[in-house]
Amino acid sequence: MTEIEHVSADTAMHSAGEVIVTLLDVNKWYGEFHALRDVNLVVGRGEKVVVCGPSGSGKSTMIRCINRLEEHQEGDIIVDGVELVPDLRKIEAIRRQVGMVFQNFNLFPHLTVMDNLTLGPVLVQDTGKEEAEAAAMDLLKRVKIPEQAWKYPGQLSGGQQQRVAIARALMLKPKIMLFDEPTSALDPEMIHEVLDVMIELAKEGMTMICVTHEMGFAREVADLVVFMDSGEVVEAAKPKRFFSEPENERTKLFLSQVLH
Amino acid sequence: MDTAISFATPKSTPRRVPPTLESGVLLWLRENLFSSIYNTVLTGLAMWALFLTIPDFIAWAFVDAVWRTDDPQTCRDAAGACWAVIGEKHRVMLFGTFPYDEHWRGVLAIVLIVGMAILSAFRRFWSYLLFVVWLGVTAAVLVLLLGGVFGLTPTGTHKWGGLPLTLLMFVGTVVGGMPLAVFLALGRRSRLPAIKAICVGFIEIVRGVPLITVLFMASLMFPLFMPEGVTIDKFLRAQIGMILFFAAYAAEIVRGGLQAIPRGQYEAADTIGFSYWQKTNRIILPQALRIVLPALMNDIIRAFKNTTFVSIIGLFDVLGATATALEDPLWVLFALEAYTFIFVFYFVFCFSMSKYSEHIERDLKKGRNL
Question: FRET label pair with B262: which of A87, A247, B20, B55, CA 20 to 30 Å apart?
Fold first, then answer.
């Protein structure tokens, strides 16, 4: 993989082990607007990357390209050895490897929590209904809401819904988890219950790419913190260095605004 | 800052019920009938109008009415309504020209359809399976009415008439039209230009013409396009016309529902790796159809009333059969009573459907998961 040499030294440092996600000079436009500009990112298996930056910086767009909710126009994206090319036939197969958690939960409101969890495995992996329900119950216990299994999403608090959403994404046993501002839509008192679940998941060795402004979370679990601004990766470093001695002026300005 | 006058008083109070609101008949009367001088005058005028008409109506409809007789002369001598015409002619009104001895088949068909309609109203039965059961019941009704198997006398569609025809036409329209409407609505949002163009074209053309024209097209023009020797049954042609018309309107309603589903639902389904049809069947359609159910019910009620149009192309639905029944010179004078009966019949059917739709809508507003 000689292309990886183009990637900045700081990023490459983290890819000593097995690489699972690679973005090489990725560019994306919305009409005339240049949303991603030569974005490079390498994520090693089992590593956690936190992506932060002001709104409109392209961080959501970037992670949405990884499971092809958005299509990039230039550059290469390789997920678990499969390159995302325009005529990709088996996009569903890639998506099953990549779980995603959204800012607005996006649970299916017409299905019970249990059905939200089991529908994926039953339909796309041919798992038996009983087996899927047992697995779902295990996951609901892990996110500490087994008693909500037969309720509808509308009857749950935001924090509970987001934990269901995490459990739903885990049902397909993904290799990579993407989090797109998972706590931004939550009331302050609910942020922690979601972060706790994410921290636990991180400790279990899941590969995670999280767009978040929770700097405490970044400090605790991240192997790499990436700062993006106006579609570019401005700075990428280990959390310790990122928070204590940021190099770029834009990073410093951003950190001064989010850290009180 | 020292001069700030804002303050709040911390206080601990147990929860209690709200103060009772004034209620009762008198309050209702005051608020609704006598709230102002004009309102009071209007109430007075309305009361007077009712006083003038109601007693006469009651005398005509009930007191002086003839309920039962097989002699039209008794009716002519009476001052009131002749409800006896319904008793005398109900077989023709309800079954048209269907052979008299086979009317039980018509009754069974009515019971099957009405029974299924009542079952379908219960939400616990809502699933794609219900639709399959409807297809089965429709097939059973067809067998009943057509005959020719299981020792049933063959009775071609030209002999059909009355309520079984009305109900079958209605059920056929909805059962055949709903799936078509869903496909049209999905097709209209398709990324494939050809599919999109076909769906948009179909919807706009059918919506652009009156139902009568569609029926005339189906009944008169359609056979011209058929190869020589191939004829399609008149009932079937009318049914196809009704289905196409219903589907074009319902498709636009379903499209509204599809548009109301947030993008996040599509994305969540995509990230799980559902295929297009899994996503559509399990995630998008169930939500979209629930949202548009009240609007769809409106269209379904209209489809029921639209079945009366088929009498124009020579099929005898309930209304058409009643008109035929009244061709009997002995009873022709009592058309008002017969049509009043038909009026009540349509009203009962449509009003129940409309009340049901209101009930569903209220539940939707409560944000309950259906």
Answer: A87
pTM score? 0.82
Provide the 10 A C-beta neighbour count for residue A147: 9
Residues of chain A with C-beta less than 8 angstroms from the C-beta of B273: 92-93, 95-96, 120, 124, 172
Question: Which residues lie closer than 8 Å to A142 by C-beta, 6 or more apart?
Answer: A167, A197, A200
**Residue in A119, A127, A150, A166 to test binding to B, most B beta-carbons within 10 Å:** A119
Q: Is the dihedral of CA B285, B288, B294, B300 positive or negative?
A: negative
Distance from the first to the final alpha carbon of chain B: 55
The phi and psi torsions of A258 (rounded to 5 degrees) equal -95, -20
Q: Which residue of B has its CA nearest to A110?
A: B369
- Scanning every residue of chain A, which has its alpha carbon at the shortest distance from the alpha carbon of B284? A108
Interface test with B, best of A60, A80, A88, A92 (most B CBs within 10 A): A92
Do B264 and A123 count as a contact with CB atoms less than 8 A apart?
no
Please name the residues in contact with A128: beta carbons below 8 A apart, sequence gap of 6 or more.
A122
Kindly report the nearest CA distance between residue B281 and chain A, in angstroms. 12
Say whether B158 sits in a helix, a strand or coil.
Answer: helix
> What's the CA gap between A63 and A45, in Å, rounded?
16
Fold of B84-365: MetI-like fold (1.10.3720)
Find where tokens 């049901």 sit. Answer: B356
Query: How far is the C-alpha of B41 from the C-alpha of B34, rounded, in Å?
Result: 8
In this prediction the ipTM stands at: 0.87
- The residues spanned by each domain of chain B are 84-365
Backbone angles phi, psi at A224, to 5 degrees: -150, 135
Rounded-to-10 torsion of CA B92, B319, B163, B139: 120
Quote the CA–CA distance of B139 and B141 in Å, as a whole number: 5
Domain interval for residue A235? 2-258
How buried is residue B366: exposed, middle or buried, by Cβ count under 10 Å (0-12/13-18/19+)? exposed
pLDDT in tens, chain B (370 residues): 578 888 888 888 888 877 766 667 788 888 888 888 999 999 999 999 999 999 988 888 888 877 887 777 877 777 878 887 887 778 888 888 888 878 888 888 889 999 998 888 888 888 888 889 988 998 888 888 888 888 778 887 778 888 888 999 999 999 899 999 999 999 999 889 999 999 999 999 999 999 999 888 888 877 777 777 777 788 888 899 999 999 999 999 999 999 999 999 999 999 998 988 999 999 999 899 888 988 999 999 999 999 999 888 888 888 888 888 888 887 888 888 889 999 999 999 999 999 988 888 787 766 545 4
Give me B280's structure tokens.
């559509």
B165 pairs with which residues across the strands? none
